Amino acid sequence: MNPTQFTFSVAFMLGLAGLAFHRTHLLSALLCLEGMMLSLFLALSLWTLELNSTSFSASPMILLAFSACEASTGLALLVATARTHGTDRMQSLNLLQC
């Protein structure tokens, strides 16, 4: 494993660890998800450049489009949660309570 692959895998694992162990606020969970998507985007972009293939060149852009959709949906949920519950703490959110 070369150093760039190691760097992106460590960045992805740090985002995953932050998502798993630091779930106090919804905003911090969304930021961890964005960090994971950014490391995936950069790794996929560099992988496409290393292969010198045009067949995989659309993959990073598709991932970036899905990441933008995920970010906008997450922010919309954050705003809706802050309006209805008054906070974005994950402990105050209950799926069984409407």
Give an account of the 3D structure:
By secondary structure, the chain is mainly alpha-helical. It has a single domain (3-92), classed as Helix Hairpins (Orthogonal Bundle). 73% of the residues lie in helices and 0% in strands. It contains three helices and no strands. It has helices at 3-21, 26-51, 59-85. The protein is elongated. The termini are far apart. The model has no long low-confidence stretch (mean pLDDT 87). It catalyses: a ubiquinone + NADH + 5 H(+)(in) = a ubiquinol + NAD(+) + 4 H(+)(out).
Key features?
98 residues; mainly alpha; Helix Hairpins; 73% helix; 0% strand; oxidoreductase activity, acting on NAD(P)H; electron transport
Q: So how many helices?
A: 3
CATH architecture: Orthogonal Bundle
Q: How far apart lie the N and C ends? A: 48 Å
Mean pLDDT: 87
| Share of β-strand residues | under 5%
Helix content: over 70%
**Mind summarizing the main beta sheet?**
none
Please state the overall shape, judged from the principal axes of the Cα atoms. elongated
Structural class: mainly alpha
- Total number of domains: 1
- What is the CATH first-level class name? Mainly Alpha
**pLDDT below 50 for ≥5 consecutive residues: which ranges?**
none
Which value, in Å, is the CA radius of gyration?
17 Å
